[in-house]
TrEMBL record:
CDD domains: Beta4Glucosyltransferase (cd02511)
InterPro entries assigned to the protein according to its UniProt record, in alphabetical order: Glyco_trans_2-like (IPR001173), Nucleotide-diphossugar_trans (IPR029044), TPR-like_helical_dom_sf (IPR011990), TPR_rpt (IPR019734)
Alphabetical keyword list: Transferase
Superkingdom, natural source: Bacteria
Pfam families on file: Glycos_transf_2, TPR_8
Protein name: Glycosyltransferase involved in cell wall bisynthesis
Residues in Glycosyltransferase 2-like domain copies: 5-91
Length: 365
């Protein structure tokens, strides 16, 4: 059985650190905490789980901190988590099995990262991350902000999920780091351009965000998943700015980078509904249901675009065309995914009454 070092960087995480460590302490063989300047009880909480607590002078570089934490590890593999991450009970069991059975020829294990949930507790936004990596490979973190591990070799995709449960977030922190680097004349990498644009979009600075998304895409050096994501985010910018023609062009631009994705099919469906072209809208919403979900997809995933949302929109389209039986059938598919959704339940009630009325008229005649 392999041994595992948990490596974490923390700062002022007293509200969540204990929850995180409770969920994983029994699964790892050592816990390394690198503190970047806490002024609360973070370190005293960490001390309840480990004596390997180190101070690190924060230099506005997340990779530098994570790499420093990794150098303290002594076990076969390194697991990394943020303080507001947890392993739920089922995932703890899966992780234990993985630890017992992992083939030591594996260099990295990816795990799902659940980032958001709907009101029924279903995952509404997720991605994958390289979470468990072989220490001997000396994998390095890259990037001052939105850092990533540069991985190679034999990569295993597991069904284990890490769940993100954030209680607070410094929403300006990353933007300030990027702005400072920009002021210092630093040349941004393609990844920096993409994530800086994301920060600008999150702060509703739509024109500036669009400028940096355009710059990122025009250079043609980005990761394909970031290219596709940029098209969607660029469309969001133009929509917020009221430039609907540029919004459409951004959506269509996504097809340069690969086959149709459900998100962009739904975007086109919405565009054609807005244009009053229901036949074209139906085509794109149907396609969204057909391209489906890709569980090992490396980019961000929102299951809504391939599950309940296109079916709900197909219900709307068919209802407007007077094809109420088809509208009802698609609403029922949507209801399977969201059985408590008020709009879907209202549709069900309305369409059942309408179909019953039609059936009564037929029988009467």
């Amino acid at each position: 059985m392999i041994t595992i070092s948990l490596c974490m960087i923390v700062k002022n995480e007293e509200a969540v650190l204990g929850r995180c460590l409770d969920s994983v302490a029994n699964l790892v063989d050592e816990i390394i905490i690198l503190d970047t300047g806490s002024t609360d009880s973070t370190k005293s909480i960490a001390a309840q789980y480990t004596n390997q607590i180190f101070d690190f002078n924060w230099i506005e570089d997340f990779s530098a901190a994570r790499n420093a934490a990794f150098t303290k590890a002594t076990m076969d593999y390194i697991l990394w988590l943020d303080a507001d991450d947890v392993l739920e009970t089922d995932d703890q069991m899966k992780f234990g099995t993985l630890k017992e059975d992992l083939d030591t020829t594996v260099d990295s294990v990816t795990m799902k990262y659940h980032l958001a949930f709907d009101e029924d507790g279903n995952v509404s936004f997720s991605t994958r991350r390289n979470r468990l990596v072989k220490r001997a490979n000396n994998f390095q973190w890259i990037g001052a902000v939105h850092e990533y591990l540069e991985i190679w070799g034999n990569i295993m995709h597991s069904d284990i999920a890490i769940t993100h449960k954030s209680l607070h977030h410094d929403s300006d922190r990353n933007l300030k780091i990027y702005e400072k680097r920009l002021e210092q004349g630093e040349e941004f990498s393609p990844r920096d351009l993409y994530y800086f644009a994301n920060e600008l979009l999150d702060h509703q600075m739509y024109e500036r965000a669009a400028t940096f998304y355009e710059k990122f895409l025009s250079e043609g050096k980005g990761w394909v998943e970031d290219n596709i994501s940029s098209c969607g985010k660029l469309a969001d910018c133009y929509h917020a700015l009221g430039d609907y023609e540029q919004e459409l062009q951004a959506v269509l631009r996504s097809f340069r980078y690969g086959s149709a994705r459900a998100e962009f099919c739904c975007r086109l469906g919405y565009y054609f509904i807005d244009q009053g072209d229901l036949t074209s809208a139906i085509f794109w919403y149907k396609l969204a249901t057909q391209v489906g979900r890709q569980e090992n997809h490396p980019g961000f995933l929102n299951p809504a675009f391939s599950t309940w949302l296109p079916h709900l929109q197909l219900c709307v389209c068919y209802d407007r065309l007077g094809m109420h039986k088809l509208a009802y059938l698609h609403n029922e598919v949507a209801r399977q995914y969201r059985p408590k959704d008020c709009k879907i339940l209202q549709n069900q009630k309305f369409l059942e009454a309408l179909l019953q009325e039609k059936n009564d008229l037929v029988n009467k005649n």
